[in-house]
Design a protein that fits this description.
Helices cover 43% and strands 20% of the residues. The protein is an alpha/beta fold and 206 residues long. Strand 5 and strand 6 form a beta hairpin.
Length: 206
């Protein structure tokens, strides 16, 4: 049987909603790969170059735009973020499921470039809880947290563009829902059904 192409899952939602936590769980699945974005943001403590992000200067970022290296890119909280295109195409062709943790602007660009992408929106149970999580994470200064909270409602207003949503109240329940979405999407009957039929024809000697 020719190998099934991988699926592209885009995870978005307000900063602090739990995207990173949920993605980390999805990535425990053997067939899943994380799309490492390029950013002009400074690394946070503990972030690893090439694992969390490729940290670059604005000049390097612009050079990548000019070389058309991005599937999508956007300015988020005064920094540039972009999804490198090549690795995604290579991995999808190898049958890997790609997980993208990107903002709403980027998600919409991906959907228009690749309509088959599956868009999942992560919601916090409330804006008050979102604040608590951002403050509890202790990775951003207070002014950065305020900017992220200010943007949350505008991001949530774009939920209608997404295929699925998950309210991340209890983390275990949210992870289970995310896994179920990936699982169900992987069982969808593809447009090209010949490779599936072929398995049984081969077995029957047809
Ligand atoms: P994002 O990637 O969307 O910015 P994170 O995954 O970093 O969000 O989560 C933000 C903070 O909230 C982290 O400290 C994380 O451990 C915590 N968190 C995530 N999900 C939950 C949850 N369901 N209940 C309580 N805290 C959570
Ligand atoms: P953070 O600075 O907290 O890592 O990310 C800030 C926001 O940028 C998050 O909403 C995250 O999903 C988004 N982001 C991360 N990488 C990309 C990317 O490659 N493209 C876009 N458009 N957004 C990204």
């Amino acid at each position: 049987m020719s190998r099934r192409k991988g699926k592209l899952f885009v995870i978005s939602g307000p900063s602090g909603a739990g995207k990173g936590t949920i993605c980390a769980e999805l990535l425990k699945e053997e067939n899943a790969r994380f799309s490492v974005s390029m950013t002009t943001r400074a690394p946070r403590e503990g972030e690893i170059e090439g694992k969390d992000y490729y940290f670059v200067t604005r000049e390097e970022f612009v050079a990548n735009i000019e070389r058309e290296n991005f599937l999508e890119y956007a300015e988020v909280f005064e920094n540039m973020y972009g999804t490198p295109k090549d690795v995604i195409m290579r991995m999808l062709n190898k049958g890997r499921n790609m997980i993208l943790d990107i903002d709403v602007q980027g998600a919409l660009q991906v959907k228009s470039a690749m309509p088959e992408a599956i868009l999942i929106f992560i919601l916090p149970p409330s804006l008050a809880e979102l604040r608590k999580r951002l403050e509890g994470r202790k990775t951003d200064k207070q002014d950065v947290i305020e900017k992220r909270l200010d943007k949350a409602l505008n991001e949530i207003k774009l939920i209608g563009e997404y295929d699925y949503y998950i309210i991340n109240d209890d983390i275990e329940t949210a992870i289970e829902k995310a896994r179920s979405i990936v699982s169900a999407e992987s069982c969808k009957v593809p447009d090209k059904v010949k490779p599936i039929i072929k398995i049984y024809e081969n077995e029957k000697g047809e």
